[in-house]
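Course exercise 7: structure representation. Students receive a sequence record and must write out the corresponding structure in token form. The form below is the worked example handed out in class, using DNA binding domain-containing protein, excisionase family (94 residues). Read each field label carefully; the graders check that inputs and outputs are placed in the correct fields and that the protein name is recorded exactly as given.

STUDENT ID: A-19
EXERCISE PROTEIN: DNA binding domain-containing protein, excisionase family
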Amino acid sequence: MDQTSPTQPNPDDASTSGGDEQVGRGAAITPEFATEHTLTPGDVAAIFNVRPKTVSRWADAGELPCITTPGGHRRFRQRDVAALLNEASERPDR
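STUDENT ANSWER:
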């Protein structure tokens, strides 16, 4: 019999800690993450007035943390998007 069950986190598994360091390209979906509001690349693109492909490039470059759904789609936490938006608004125009 397996000592861990789906309802109890495995203490040896770092992906269940819910810490910010666990969110990145392809990070596991934890119960803590699942309760947060997430945005699609199209939603994020509309906020920044860019194309969804640009948002995907930001994720690939590590500028915007994301998770990947079981179906292979990216999702972004609202707080990560807000942090990037605030950072972008603080930068001087180029």
